[in-house]
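Hi there, hope your week has been kind to you so far. Do you reckon you could talk me through the fold, stretch by stretch? I've dropped the whole record in just underneath, so have a look:
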Amino acid sequence: MKKILNATLVLLALAAQSCHAQRDEKPQASAAQPAATQPVRSDNRLTLTDFTDVAAATIDAVVHIKTEMTQMTPLYQSFFGFIIPQGVQKQVYNAYGSGVIVTTDGYIVTNNHVVQDAERIFVTLNDRRELPAKLVGNDPATDLAVIKVEADGLTYIPFGNSDHVRVGEPVLAIGNPFNLTSTVTSGIISAKARNMRIINNPHSNETPLESFLQTDAAVNSGNSGGALVNSRAELIGIVTAIASGNGNYIGYSFAIPSNLAVKVAGDLQHYGYVQRGYLGVQVTEVDANVARQTGARDIKGLYVAKVVPDCASDRAGIHQGDIIVRVAGKEVNTFAEMMEELGLFSPGDEVEVDYVRDGHANTVRATLLNSQGNTQIIRKN
């Protein structure tokens, strides 16, 4: 059976890290959101059919981002038909994107690919003020970053709960496509927990964490880092990518769920680095073929193909061949769903894991570890 599985299944690795036996003290809990973020507001006036109030409440909180970077390029001169090297010259390049103000004092969430490698960052507010910004922290694994402008009294968008988002729910996408500032488009949530394998960053060894909200709201180049908001004017996603072969919108786009953005942004603000908790398993999604080969009674959950020795799952008593069906009380039927749920926790957090073994349901509490095999805070060097 093991040979059959190895020949027919593609294992999805949660993380490849070494785990050590020592167990350190539990770190302080990561902030649920950036420190200055205000509580989520609720306004029953905002309706499902009329988005004018939603747009008015949120458009001032979405900013235009311009970055500058300098590249040294060779300089040549043609002399009687010969190309003669003449040293190098500095070439300044600009890139553009969007960002979402999440605190009144100027913290802005955007995509990592919008600001990565930038030497200078400038933010243009909806009232046309241009302010310099500094990079607070970035996380290539989720394609998220936090930048900061020095300003007070800014309009912000409160975080909503992306776990409550439903397929078919109407949404607005707000951003700056093609440098057209303050652009609003509408659509619905088309799907949840999409893993598109589009995050590819050679500068990071972290496993990409993709569990996107899919929407048919029109998104184009320049929308990256913009807002996906619901009918209550709450931020439920950070727009990050489109499904396109030509770089332009052809029907679907994707956003990072707000609950994950809250965790990542809070960690970047407080530690400069995301505190990730690992379960230490390799899993494959249970489909009809896997269920038939493993004898699983139900076509759901995640088949545990390997347990990393002395990691969280091993210490909790999870074995190869178990089928994980819930993590922290949430059903998980795809790798993306499990990664999204684990991404909300930090090393040292205890997470309840429900699994099936030999047809019997079991529940354990696993203490998540960091990539170094302990529960210490990891700070950016």
